[in-house]
Write a structure and sequence with these properties.
The chain has 223 residues and is of the alpha/beta class. The chain has a single domain (13-222), classed as Rossmann fold (3-Layer(aba) Sandwich), CATH 3.40.50.360. 41% of the residues lie in helices and 17% in strands. The protein has 7 helices and 7 strands. The chain has helices spanning 27-45, 61-70, 75-85, 103-115, 139-150, 178-193, 212-222; strands at residues 13-19, 50-56, 89-97, 100-101, 124-131, 154-155, 160-163. Helix 1 links the parallel strand 1 (13-19) and strand 2 (50-56). The chain is globular. 39% of the residues are buried. This is NAD(P)H-dependent oxidoreductase. It comes from Streptomyces axinellae.
Length: 223
């Protein structure tokens, strides 16, 4: 009798969505939800389930300010940070102010970095932003992507910017519509995230770092 091949169980992917929208309802939250749904659909095609949690930063604004002044994080802020750092994948969306991410968005990820500078190392991240004009779309590349590169996260190639007119604009043959960009970005995040559902930890083990002096000494020995 031939034994059945061993297959490693696939656990649900922990997807955390961070929205820095200030209004209610918010176009920032709307974009975040659509990106999360596109990711869920793409993962479902690979028969991977998704557990999605949302961190609304506007409700944490006071706690974030308090953390900067006192160095202490309250329970609600700590829970939000843990949802982000424990995630298998992250979707981060901010409104654009003064041609950059919002101060609330940046301050929250500063708190994440203060809690553990390596907390997001290796985590797949899908970036999104909303604004009134398409002129600010490069905020994704000159502001958001460098921020998450510094945090050593892995950002997906397609970042999604939604201007006011994008919500009702169809494909024109040159520029993909917002739904197409959302679907493509969600698919890319799913591709990076699906293998993590078969591991016990959302973060891969960090390679051993050899001090520079030791590396030089090893070269001298070889000579």
């Amino acid at each position: 009798m031939t034994a059945a091949p061993h297959t490693q169980p696939v656990r649900p992917v922990r997807l955390t969505v961070v929205s820095a929208g200030l209004g209610e309802p918010s176009s920032t939250r709307l974009l975040a939800d659509r990106l999360a749904e596109a990711t869920r659909v793409a993962l479902a095609e690979d028969r991977v389930e998704t557990e999605t949690e949302v961190v609304e930063l506007r409700g944490l604004a006071t706690g974030i300010a308090h953390a900067f002044v006192t160095g202490l994080t309250g329970d609600e802020l700590r829970e939000g940070v843990e949802r982000v750092t424990d995630a298998d994948a992250l979707i981060a969306v901010t409104p654009v102010f003064s041609a950059s991410y919002s101060g609330l968005f940046k301050s929250f990820f500063d708190v994440v970095g203060m809690t553990d500078k390596d907390a997001l190392a290796g985590t797949p991240v899908l970036l999104g932003a909303t604004g009134g004009s398409p002129r600010h779309s490069l905020v994704l590349e000159h502001a958001l992507r460098p921020l998450f590169t510094y945090l050593r996260a892995v950002t997906v190639p397609t970042a999604v910017y939604a201007a006011t007119d994008d919500w009702a604009t169809a494909d024109d043959g040159l520029t993909p519509s917002l739904p197409r960009r959302v679907a493509r970005a969600g698919g890319e995040l799913a591709t990076l995230t699906a293998p993590r559902a078969t591991t016990g930890s959302p973060h891969s083990a960090a390679p051993e770092v050899v001090p520079f002096e030791q590396q030089l000494a090893a070269l001298r020995v070889k000579k």
